[in-house]
Amino acid sequence: MTTSSLANLVTDVAIVLASLAIFFAIGQVFVAKKLLQNYSLTNLDARTAARVVELTFSLVFSLSCGLFELVILEIGDALDRDLRWYCWKGFIGLMILLVVCVTPYLQAYLICRNWGGE
C-alpha cells in the first residue's frame, strides 16, 4: 500500500465516521426537541431510561442514514470500494443487532420495570 493510497483510505474513513457523528447528533437533537419535549422527568430511573431510549434511537437513525449514504456513494462510485463493502457489512450487522435484539430487549425491560405502576 502506497502512502497516497493509505492517506486516501484514512480520509475516506474520516468522512464515513464524521458523517455518522453528524447523523447521530441530528438524531439526538430530534429526540430532545420533538419527541421528549413535553416530558419532565424528575425520577433518576426515568431519566436514565429516557437517555437509553434517546441513545438507541440516535444510533439506529445514524446507521439508517449511513446506509442511505452508502447507496449514494455506490451510485457515485465515491470512496474506496473495499471500505464501502466493509461499511455495508458493519452497518447492516449493527442494524440487525439493534433492531432484532437490543430494541425488543429494551422494550420488554421498560414494560416489566413499569408493570407495577407509579
UniProtKB/TrEMBL annotation:
Keywords of the record: Membrane, Transmembrane, Transmembrane helix
Source species: Piptocephalis cylindrospora
InterPro entries in UniProt: GPHR/GTG
Transmembrane segments: 6-31, 52-72, 92-112
Upper classification of the organism: Eukaryota, Fungi, Fungi incertae sedis, Zoopagomycota, Zoopagomycotina
Protein's name according to its UniProt entry: Uncharacterized protein
Domain of life: Eukaryota
